[in-house]
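Entry
Fold in token form

___
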Amino acid sequence: MLNKTRSLGIAIGVAGCLGACGPAPGGATHGGRGAVGSGAEVGYTPPPSVTGAQRLTAGRVLLIGTAAPMATVRLASPSGQAVFAHSDRAGAWRLLLPPAKEVRLFGLSEPGQGRPVQAEGYFALTPGGLAAQLRAGSGAVALGPRPAAPEILAVDFDRKGGTVISGAAPDANPVALKVDGAAQEPVRVDPDGRFMAPLNEPLRPGSHVLAAATRQGAHGEATLTVSPAEPLVGGPFRAALAGGGWRIDWLTPGGGVQSTVLFDRQGGAS
């Protein structure tokens, strides 16, 4: 999709240390299953992961993921409620979730040797079926197919204004980013079509325009308004619909509150 513009009015959900927060919820420090290298120690159990989400009829969402073969995968909400999926002999699992009007957050785990193996961060799912992995001290990883043009899919903030922009691109060529018209360093796109760009300068309160473009000229934009966040009350996260996306303020293991803004791929709130 060319020349896509999405608007978002948000408050910075500030939490300190986008580059130096503690381990993920549950004490896990593992990355996704695909990040495990050939040098993994004997007996190591990679954490489970969500690799995709499909929106079905009547608002239902089908989650697709990986885990150890023949394992029970637990998806637990911050309130302690849990649902379970079971992987097959190849380690693949699927789980059908009912519709919801609010953003849902889950922690993923599976049995390990002596203790559960916890995936990094939280898995977030919007009512529209947009799925992303929220990671303390880093940018969110939004799931989905490669787009026809680069898209800005998530923005993360910390208390000091440190910002990470995340998105997807149609090919492996670097993406050119601009913030309020100012060019940033070209961003590398990984084999899965994702890019992640920590900004050198913090975003100040006010309105900002973020743009991502390819050499061929296709580009996408996201417009956001930054304002101070209110403290979290009544739970470890808060999600609110704002303009072109969902704003999620969530408690990190280090005790701070990190904000993740998820943009819908179709230009509206997902």
Summary: Residues 119 and 222 are 29 Å apart (CA to CA). Residues 1-17, 19-40, 266-270 have pLDDT under 50 and may be disordered. The longest strand covers residues 206-213. The two ends are 17 Å apart (CA to CA).
